[in-house]
Design brief:
The protein is mainly alpha-helical and about 1100 residues long. Helices cover about 60% and strands about 0% of the residues. Among the domains are: about 190 residues, no CATH class; about 120 residues, no CATH class; about 140 residues; about 100 residues, no CATH class; about 160 residues.
Length: about 1100
């Protein structure tokens, strides 16, 4: 960056030429110090013209500062260039200051130093010094010392020397941020260039031989400075300069010898020192940023390790010099304050320096002798007492914050926490105008505490409080998401109600309520509906809105989230995403909280999540519909799922154990209460158990797992017979799906607890035996669901009648004498065991004691099984029924179950090969016989209307299962065969995964003694012709129509839908295989189906089926 000549440069050039003329017959290159007052006047006037005069209250003139730097730099480089005998041809190309520098006459060091002194440019001179190597700094300080001591030498020269010394200490980290374009950096580059041009040039930049000898010894900066001050002690004639000299030397000693890292003072102490400093200078009325910045630099320099560490000088030597100086000036009477009532700045500063040094010297025993002498001397000084800081703390803090001075964040924290200042208007104004300075976590908390004290005061200013709340919320809104969460967590630590911990003016409450309502209205209308696919931008906005109101009142914000999630259709997903972004709101609350009801049954000793408490309040405040319960269930499920967006910390907003302890345990322990929704509690427990958990120990151990298992076992025992009238205070499950959910939860929980028992069996033995003994009073099937918990500790206990039909090993099985399982009930118990689990089903099939080679045994077994199946069917869940269907298929294919197939629905048997369909046909006939028996007069009063509906559902499920097996045997899987499945009238519970359906009729054939002929024929490669498929479908249709006619109470909708599916598939087969039947056969089929359907009592169903049959036949023809 070359320096361009302009008008100001010309003015300076003329001033230096005029000064050169005033030196005649001599020149500026040999100017003595004494002549500067006469010769230097034109130069100073020119600088004054260029820089102008600064008003006392004005900001520093940047132009003046730049020109001061420029003139000092140019004059100094002029000296260096002459010393180095720089080549002009090279200089004009590489020196950016060449034009101005070359226009000046030659000068000497006296001109440079007097120019610095006269223009108060000691800070600039010190900054240039710091860009030089340390040996060069020592040499330049030596020159400065000689110049100060040269005639005429006075006290002002000592002041100048001390100012340069202290400026070297004050300039610190700022140097590291300088760029190559600064004047200081360009000066350093030019010095380096002049030094490196050639070895001879480098030597010429040194002093002459005499100077070189002296400087080689005095490269230790501290040695140079302390000895220079020692040599100047007789030049001091005033108390103020004495105090200044001692304080500078003591601070230099302290920062170079006695500390190794910065001494950090509390911010209140810093403020006190700054206020005393400004007060002593008498500049309270003209409080400015520059004044405070300079005071901060002084304080920082006296508390931070110096960049100049001693190399040759010892601590004892420095102490000796300071002691000598103090003694000399004391003997001359210079260390006495003239007016103790008005302490001067230098005295106050010296007092602090003395305190720091004496405290530190107590830990430096290597200089004990010198330390004692100095301590005695310093303590004898008659310094004024430490006065209290003037009452300008608030103003000083405000200036520091407004101008972002050093430590302004810490001062902002102090400012925010000063409740005594908060009543003044300037405090509110400063806060509002400098919000960026308060965007720190700790600062905002201090501000919040102050605001709370204002809100809860007796005579609070409502308008000011509302303005402050808005300002605090604005500051919070500008924080990063991480800082917001830290602040929210801390606010919860203060109070779950935030600013509203105690009663506040109604106007403030109403204003916040309006903001809260507006925030959630914007969220719901802008993307919280069921059809909204929330974009990242919308989510970010929603998170900011919720965080803002949560900062003011966490509990109110979370309650609004809960209410929206439950009662606004589809909003649960967005609310969950918002809360997952605000983990600061999941802090635990210990014990009772503000506004919490005294009779709250849920009060976990370890603390509870605020969200759980707010959800409880939401649930209590309004009854929920079924859809709203599902929204709540999904909402909790999302919150229990770890946040997939956070790869580093996969934490969920809500822990599963919190949900279980808050919503499940209290409800399940209060079974029998009509207000308790047992099914919903089970759904919540199932959702919690479905969350992926960390390794052992599992979180379920914190939820009283053994009592919970027993309560679930009690529920199962009470609800085992769903269609019977429940006993007093027993739980009546609304559907068989709930029973299946209960079994799923019981099994999953048992597996989790069993894994923990297996890992540490001795730790759980007592609890295990307690649970086993408690379940003795329950139904015998309960213990089988708890099999994962027992492990190998206990035998399997079954009714004794089961052992009569099943060969079970005595070492693992034992019989129970149960009154309800008397003679002839063995097959009933056997079928109940088969339905409990897949593994138990396999065991029952493999251990069944039946000689299939004896027809009489098989016949007797088949009759008994028909009765047992009739008794078991109504009480089966879907998964249990699927297991029993598998058992029936296995028994049929292994020839252990005899089911004669009668031709009651055909006039003649066509010439068809039905061997591949023998299992389906026999199974259909068996189920027909079961339903005939169940619908007969002897069993007519067994079931309620809900029970009959469930039986229809199970039978329809079995028919579809058989129809799927028939579909699988078609020779061609044409797309035309894929007909839409009619929906079932009752859906399975979505929270329970149904057992895997296995349509293989020989799933457990390996457990049988031998396979039947039918089983072998399944492996034959021949495909079933379409005529056989149509025949089987017609038989299934006839069976289902027969049963639909028998079914009491009109509970036949599932059967009606299943009939439509059979007809649709029948039509698809006919369309795919036109040769499967002739026109006459199709007419016979239409007449036959219509005749069968005419028996239905429901006219609507009959009409629909007739229409379908008509379409079926006409399309086939």
């Amino acid at each position: 960056m070359a320096l361009i000549m302009n008008k100001d440069s010309a003015i300076l050039q003329g001033a230096f030429l005029q000064a050169e003329k005033l030196c005649l017959p001599s020149s500026l290159s040999s100017l003595p110090k004494a002549d500067w007052s006469r010769v230097g006047r034109p130069i100073l006037l020119a600088l004054q013209e260029i820089c102008g005069r600064n008003e006392p209250d004005s900001q520093p003139n940047l132009q003046a500062l730049t020109w001061k730097k420029r003139i000092v730099c140019v004059v100094w480089l002029k000296l260096l260039s002459r010393e180095a005998k720089e080549d002009v041809e090279k200089a004009w190309r590489e020196n950016p200051f060449f034009s101005l520098q070359n226009s000046f006459p030659e000068v000497n060091h006296a001109v440079l130093l007097e120019l610095v002194k006269s223009t108060a440019a000691a800070p600039i001179f010190a900054r240039f010094l710091l860009h030089l190597p340390q040996d060069r700094i020592a040499m330049e300080l030596g020159r400065l010392t000689e110049h100060v001591r040269s005639d005429p030498a006075g006290e002002e020269d000592v002041r100048f020397f001390l100012e340069v010394w202290w400026e070297l200490w004050k300039v610190r980290e700022e140097l590291k941020s300088q760029t190559e374009e600064t004047i200081e950096a360009m000066f350093a580059n030019q010095f380096a260039r002049l030094s490196s041009d050639s070895p001879h040039t480098a030597k010429r930049l040194k002093l002459d031989s005499a100077e070189m000898t002296a400087s080689s010894v005095n490269t230790d900066i501290l040695h140079v400075l302390f000895n220079a001050l020692k040599d100047m002690m007789d030049m001091v004639a005033s108390t103020d300069v004495c105090f200044q000299s001692l304080s500078v030397s003591l601070d230099a000693l302290y920062t170079s010898f006695l500390i190794t890292q910065e001494v950090v003072l509390p911010i209140t102490e810093k403020l006190d020192i700054l206020c005393k400093t400004i007060g002593c200078r008498g500049e309270i009325e003209t409080l400015s940023a520059e004044l405070i910045r300079d005071a901060q630099k002084d304080l920082s320099a006296s508390l931070s390790p110096s960049r100049f560490q001693p190399s040759t000088m010892k601590l004892s030597e420095a102490l000796k010099i300071i002691t000598g100086l103090a003694q000399f000036w004391k003997d001359k009477g210079l260390l006495v304050v003239s007016d103790p009532s008005t302490p001067c700045f230098s005295a106050v500063r010296l007092q602090r320096s003395i305190q720091r040094v004496l405290t530190a010297l107590d830990e430096a025993p290597e200089a004990a002798a010198e330390t004692d002498a100095l301590r005695d001397l310093l303590k004898s000084l008659d310094l004024p007492a430490d006065e209290n800081a003037p009452d300008i703390q608030a103003q000083v803090t405000t200036v520091i914050i407004a101008h972002r001075l050093q430590d302004y964040h810490s001062f902002a924290e102090l400012f925010a926490g000063k409740a005594s200042w908060a009543h003044s208007e300037f405090w509110v104004h400063c806060l509002d105008e400098n919000q960026a300075a308060f965007r720190q976590h700790r600062t905002l908390l201090r501000l919040s505490s102050t605001l709370m004290s204002l809100l809860h005061a007796e005579n609070s200013d409502i308008s000011r409080c509302r303005k402050l709340m808005k300002t605090a919320a604005d500051i919070f809104s500008a924080l990063s998401l991480e800082d917001k969460n830290q602040t929210l967590a801390a606010m919860l630590g203060l109070s779950s109600k935030g600013f509203f911990k105690q009663p506040v003016p109604s106007a403030v409450t109403e204003g916040f309520q309006q903001e809260l309502n507006m925030a959630f209205n914007c969220i719901i209308q802008g993307g919280g509906g069921a059809s909204a696919a929330v974009s990242q931008g919308n989510l970010t906005t929603a998170v900011s809105l919720v965080a803002r109101v949560a900062f003011q009142n966490p509990e109110a914000a979370i309650k609004s989230c809960c209410h929206s999630a439950v009662f606004n259709k589809g909003a649960f997903s967005l609310m969950a995403k918002i809360l997952q972004q605000l983990p600061g709101l999941k802090a635990q609350l210990g014990g009772k909280n503000e506004g919490e009801p005294k009779d709250d049954k849920v009060n976990a000793a370890s603390g509870r999540n605020l969200l759980c408490r707010c959800l409880q309040d939401t649930i209590r405040s309004k009854s929920m519909s079924a859809s709203e319960k599902q929204q709540l269930l999904k909402f909790l499920g999302l919150l229990m799922t770890p946040d997939v967006m956070n790869e580093e910390k996969k934490e969920s907003f809500l822990l599963p154990q919190e949900v279980v302890n808050t919503f499940v345990l209290p409800n399940l322990s209060a079974v029998g209460d009509d207000k308790i929704d047992t099914e919903f509690s089970l759904q919540l427990l199932h959702a919690a158990l479905s969350v992926e958990a960390a390794t052992s120990p599992h979180w379920v151990l914190s939820c009283s797992p053994f009592p919970l298992l027993f309560v679930l076992a009690q529920l199962y025992n009470q609800a085992y017979r769903c269609w019977e009238e429940p006993a007093e205070r027993a739980v009546h499950l609304r559907s068989m799906d709930t029973k299946e959910l209960l079994v799923s939860v019981l099994t999953t929980l048992g597996q989790l607890v069993g894994a923990e028992i297996e890992a540490a069996p001795t730790s759980w033995s007592r609890a295990l035996f307690w649970l086993y003994n408690k379940t003795e009073e329950l139904d015998w099937t309960v213990r089988f669901h708890l099999r994962p918990v027992w492990g190998e500790h206990f035998k399997n206990e079954v009714p004794s009648s089961l052992l009569e039909v099943c060969d079970l090993p005595e070492q693992d099985w034992s019989g129970l004498d149960l009154p309800e399982y008397g003679q002839g009930t063995g097959l009933l118990a056997w079928m109940e065991c088969c339905s409990l689990s897949d593994s138990l089903r396999s065991t029952m099939l493999s251990c069944l004691s039946l000689d299939r080679h004896r027809p009489d045994h098989v016949s007797m077994f088949s009759k008994g099984l028909l009765v047992a199946l009739t008794q078991s069917l109504p009480w089966c869940s879907v998964s249990q029924w699927e297991r029993l269907l598998g058992v029936l298929r296995e028994l049929i294919t292994s020839a252990r179950l005899s089911v004669p197939f009668s031709l009651e629905y055909v006039d003649f048997l066509p010439l068809l090969d039905l061997r591949q369909f023998s299992c389906e046909l026999r199974l259909s006939v068996l189920l027909l016989r079961v339903l005939q028996l169940l619908c007969g007069s002897s069993c007519a009063d067994w079931l309620s209307s809900d029970g009959w509906a469930h039986v229809c559902r199970l039978y329809a499920h079995a028919v579809r299962d058989m129809m799927n097996c028939v579909k699988a045997k078609l020779p061609l899987h044409s797309s035309s065969l894929e007909c839409p499945k009619a929906p079932d009238s009752l859906e399975l519970n979505p929270s329970v995964k149904p057992a895997k359906r296995d349509h293989n009729p020989v799933e457990h054939a390996e457990d049988s003694p031998q396979e039947s002929e039918d089983a072998h024929m399944k492996d034959e490669p021949a495909a079933a012709p379409s005529q056989e498929v149509l025949f089987v479908l017609s038989q299934l249709f006839c069976h289902i129509q027969h049963i639909q006619v028998m079914m009491p109470g009109g509970q036949s909708e599932p059967l009606f839908l299943c009939s439509l599916e059979i007809l649709s598939h029948y039509e698809a087969v006919m369309a795919a295989f036109p040769d499967s039947c002739s026109h006459a056969e199709s007419d016979d089929a239409r007449h036959f189906f219509t005749t069968i359907t005419d028996n239905l009592s429901n006219q609507h169903m009959k009409a629909v089926l007739h229409q379908k049959i008509t379409q079926l036949v006409s399309s086939a023809a």
